[in-house]
Design brief:
By secondary structure, the chain is α/β, with parallel strands linked by helices. Helices cover 47% and strands 15% of the residues. Strand 3, helix 3 and strand 4 form a beta-alpha-beta unit. The two termini are 28 Å apart.
Length: 347
């Protein structure tokens, strides 16, 4: 069985979680020799699997009717705080995503919130719930990566480092991260992330001014290549993830796999997504107090490490791979049966 996996992210949006998920998907399928993988323009396959929702996805999938799979990384709420004047775009985004979801024979919902959004869109598609996979070995902390990461960021080897990862938008909570950094000038804060949508990104002027006026304890690392991110994670001691809207975010799980506590914003999405406990803060003040405690209270820090370790079990890559293969085989078998029936009717 040959799987044709496509995404526009290698051409235009590498600095996104969707691109990471696309690359993780390819790596996952290639781990064993029970399937072949075709990527973007390399050829054709037996089953089509798309990760992005542009014209490329519609064009590449045109010959795969009955065998199309789409992983829904984006829902209408994803544009809130990501695009300027997002409310003007919302009716068009909803219609566009409905078309994209309906184009697929199977939509993979990466979280309960995504499943709900697909249903509410009115899309005519079958929904299967499968999380984004995480490859622990990719992100596992090493002394070498920690040294390289700290050198890359210009950090002293002994200072406590708080990391933020994500696009430079209001939705990702960049302003809140900087508020925490301002309240703790004795602690080093690093934000890694760029603007894959360029001038269409929300809050460019505001966020740039915030970083320009930030204290010496703040580093804006900008966009980091995916291959270098293990070093960036390894350089840090704690991750803050103050995002206001997520579906199945990869960066906090990657940070957890690297062996550090992660403090999430307390939002509804995670209550339905995570099966195990997670650390959460409901306000900037709570982010500040929990960060202080992580630095001063070794027992609390160690509890954070234990929580991170428990979070990883839900995203076991082998379980996720098996679920994907079930979807592919089911679609291919149904399509082959329909082709045989059509042929018999003609003859």
């Amino acid at each position: 069985m040959k799987i044709h996996v496509i995404s526009e992210t290698p051409f235009i949006m590498k600095a996104t979680g969707v691109h990471t998920a696309f690359m993780d998907h390819i790596e996952l399928l290639k781990e064993k020799d029970d399937v072949e993988v075709v990527i973007n323009d390399e050829g054709t396959g037996d089953v089509f699997h798309g990760h992005t929702y542009g014209l490329y996805y519609l064009w590449k999938g045109r010959k795969y009717k009955g065998r199309r799979v789409f992983t829904a990384h984006v829902i209408p709420d994803s544009i809130k705080g990501s695009l300027p004047a997002w409310w003007l775009f919302m009716p068009f985004i909803k219609l566009g995503l409905k078309i994209v979801y309906s184009y697929a024979d199977v939509c993979i919902a990466i979280s309960p919130m995504v499943e709900k959004a697909i249903i509410e869109s009115g899309a005519k598609t079958r929904i299967v719930n499968i999380y984004n996979p995480v490859h622990p070995d990719t992100w596992r902390r090493t002394d070498e990566n920690r040294i390289k990461g700290r050198r890359k960021l210009g950090l002293d080897k002994n200072e406590f480092v708080v990391l933020g990862v994500g696009q430079l938008t209001g939705r990702k909570g960049v302003d809140d991260f900087l508020d925490v950094a301002e309240a703790l000038p004795e602690v080093r804060f690093v934000w890694a992330g760029g603007r894959p949508f360029g001038g269409l990104t929300e809050g460019i002027k505001r966020i740039d001014e915030r970083f320009a006026g930030a204290g010496l304890n703040v580093i804006n690392a900008g966009q980091i290549d995916l291959e270098e991110m293990p070093q960036i994670y390894a350089a840090a001691d704690l991750m803050l993830f103050p995002s206001y809207q997520e579906n199945c975010p990869l960066s906090p799980i990657e940070a957890a796999a690297c062996g550090m506590p992660v403090i999430y914003r307390d939002i509804e999405e995670y209550k339905s997504l995570y099966k195990n406990p997670y650390l959460k803060a409901g306000s900037t003040e709570e982010f500040i107090s929990m960060t202080k405690r992580m630095i001063s209270d070794k027992a609390f820090y160690n509890e954070g490490l234990r929580v991170s370790e428990q979070l990883l079990f839900q995203f076991d890559k082998d379980v996720i791979r098996q679920k994907l293969l079930v979807v592919y085989k089911s679609l291919l078998n149904d399509w082959q049966s329909s082709m045989m029936l059509s042929a018999s009717l003609i003859t």
